Amino acid sequence: MATYTPMIQQYLRIKAEYQDAFLFFRLGDFYEMFFDDALKASQELEITLTSREGGGEDKIPMCGVPYHSAANYIDTLVERGYKVAICEQTEDPKQAKGVVRREVVQLITPGTKMDGKTLDEKENNFIASVTDFGDGSFGFAYTDLSTGENKATILNSSFSDLYNELAILGAKEAVVSSGFPASWQKDLKERGLAVSLEDSEEELISFTELLADLNEKKHRISMSRLLHYLFRTQKRNLDHLQPVTIYETKQFLKIDFYSKRNLELTETIRAKGKKGSLLWLMDETKTAMGGRLLKQWIDRPLIDKNQIERRQELVETMIQHFFERQDLREQLKNVYDLERLAGRVAFGNVNARDLIQLKSSLQQVPAIKQTVASMGQEQARKISDILDPCGEITDLLEQALQDNPPISIKEGNLIRDGYNEELDRYRDASRNGKTWIASLERQERERTGIKSLKIGYNRIFGYYIEVSRANLHLLEEGRYERKQTLTNAERFVTPELKEKETLILQAEEKIADLEYDLFIQVRETVKEYIPRLQKLAKAVSELDVLQCFAAVSEERHYVKPVFSEERKLIIKDGRHPVVEKVLRTQEYVPNDCYMNPERELLLITGPNMSGKSTFMRQVALTAILAQMGCFVPAAEAVLPIFDKVFTRIGAADDLISGQSTFMVEMLEARNAIANATANSLILFDEIGRGTSTYDGMALAQAIIEYIHDNIRAKTLFSTHYHELTPLSDQLTSLENVHVSAVEQNGKVVFLHKIKEGSADKSYGIHVAQLAELPDELIKRANEILSSLEKGADTPIIPIKKEIDNKQADAANLNESALEAQLSFFGVQEKPQKTELTSKEKKLIEQIKSLEILEMTPLEAINSLYKLQKLLK
Ligand SMILES: Nc1ncnc2c1ncn2[C@@H]1O[C@H](COP(=O)(O)OP(=O)(O)OP(=O)(O)O)[C@@H](O)[C@H]1O
């Protein structure tokens, strides 16, 4: 059997270590991929697949991407959840010349990606590690490699808690041990996370300092697992990693993953984009760092009253100091991403332009400091005190770097004149070389009196003085060293010319080398300031988010909420922050919400489309904004501090786990019921809608009773089941409210106004009319409705029951049942069993297959309408 060529063997050896990654194998100006990698990459990247002899029995499939445009391809692959191992070639110093050594210099993974087009500057890229301690707890640690932010906590070892934490962070990758349950690994992968294995968890010596303050062994273990992985994949300096902060999930308002989605906190449900979310509305930040922090604050509102009030006071101060705030916004605009710049300094991949950005950002700091201090508020002054302009770096960068350096640090033009004497000399030589040669030529002509003497240059001998044979006798003895003899002339050099020549010829090369070295020195000096830069970045981002809260609060007329110790919730003229912004043609109708320990549950009725969900969401968003420390969209707000928010809103299939809408509904309800406390907020939008009417109604009532008797959480429960409204007579803390609508000229007009008491009617058919269902159908629906309202037995149920019971097929149906169903569908004549028309037979088949009890009323009407048509 033929063996592969040495290079392919080398490839296979390396590939064996990186089986779960695309191996980008450097060959000259290309990164090549072979075998399965090539087949897959050619499809993913739409690049040409070729094949070559490589010593094996078959040709080797192969495809490649050019080195210079590789970043884009890597970006694409990693964005799709793949890993890419970059394998570079170097000449092996220990081996004979020409022997190439190849090694993987970095493994780029979804959670460690730090640049590229697909990485949003206003979003963190978190990677988390999970360690199962086998005692019912998980160690959970996460890092954003680009900013060096590190945090760790302990979680209950339930998949939902773990996934919730990963989802809240938007983590792209989870690092687990090989013993981590395979089914959970699969679940995480199906939910779009890359899962990587790392079994080492002992502490790395190089990170002792980072872990120094961690008393809890579990934190040290989970953080060490993550660090091992980062170290193994990145293979470079990770000096920018910040000391680990410990947090507990209970320090924050717990918003589970479903609620985060249902409330559209950071992305919308349908478009899955930022536009239309609370984050979109709020994002008035001026810096990338501020943008990232805003998202974190939205994901994790606070529950500590003092911390919330501290933010509120700062927001209030900023609102009051309009002019200072405008200055601050302008100043922040000129601050680049200090956090990510600091990260790149650590990695050693900053270029001179990055350092110029760093300098100009730092130059803004004294002004920001002054602006914030001038607001005169204590907390603002404290932040101002923390702002450290790092003057030494600004001075160094100002002295060392030119204003408009190129991106490449190997091209020169980085370092300013006057920064380094040696560099100045070479530059001088390079710039003045030609002038100097011309003047030497003049001097030599004068000295020798030879007018034809000239100084020339050739690639072999360098600079020379050329004298014609006839004039040779005029040259001073011993001064000129002969270099070359031509037919009619001789060429000479002098020690002076030689010295200048070295200076001139090597100047360009020397300049580039020297500039590079000096730049690296500057970069190394900046490296020492990373912790100070990170501290500064934190303070600047906080200021940015606070000014953003102030800007939105002022522009949109928000008020400062007050926190009630007595579990009261009073919102006057509350608005849904996003809907109010989006509505253009129509004014938003503000609504009040009153709740207290005697009024814990509100049962909300009202027509479809009247604004029940919007009202419920606006209450939750008001609470979330308040606990973020922001003002809220209302005329007045007194709020309890909630510990958790649970929601069940709208239809949300969990396609991944293959659960039905109704199952998801029940799972979300269970999650709320199992975890809510008296300090929680629950929003249940039409729970029970996903099943048959009686089941749904029974479940809805049981859920309301359960919350009322056992949990006492503040609960907003919207329903179409009017039958539930009398519950308020029995349940003391349940009140009915409704969203009002009126009928004008037979059409429904929504007032969007919440009123006490239950709704008088449902207007479902009016909404169907608005949706332009056929007139005939609407007319029929009204007929059915009025017959139902008169207490008539639904004609659907008896027939359905008979069929369900499988007591009869069409031939066996007794006459009266058949008569009933045909008359229901508008067949007037009494048919003979034996004389059924083909249409009627078809109709009977259709009826048998109907699952009317599983349908919503509208679906039922639609089906009936279709069947009616069959008869025509
Ligand atoms: N307070 C309001 N002021 C103005 N428009 C509103 C208000 N509340 C809701 N709307 C408008 O009404 C539309 C429907 O609201 P929403 O989805 O909350 O109704 P709903 O009662 O929950 O409907 P359904 O029962 O069909 O789910 C919203 O998209 C919004 O445009």
UniProtKB/TrEMBL annotation:
One of its GO terms (biological process) is mismatch repair. Coiled coil: none annotated. The keyword Manganese does not apply. GO terms for molecular function: ATP binding; ATP-dependent DNA damage sensor activity; damaged DNA binding; mismatched DNA binding. One of its GO terms (cellular component) is cytosol. Gene3D superfamilies: 1.10.1420.10, DNA repair protein MutS, domain I, MutS, connector domain, P-loop containing nucleotide triphosphate hydrolases. ATP binds at residues 606-613. Transmembrane segments: none annotated. Keywords: ATP-binding, DNA damage, DNA repair, DNA-binding, Nucleotide-binding. Residues 680-696 form the DNA mismatch repair proteins mutS family domain. It comes from the Bacteria. The keyword Nucleotide-binding applies. This protein is involved in the repair of mismatches in DNA. It is possible that it carries out the mismatch recognition step. This protein has a weak ATPase activity. Belongs to the DNA mismatch repair MutS family. This is DNA mismatch repair protein MutS. It comes from Peribacillus saganii.
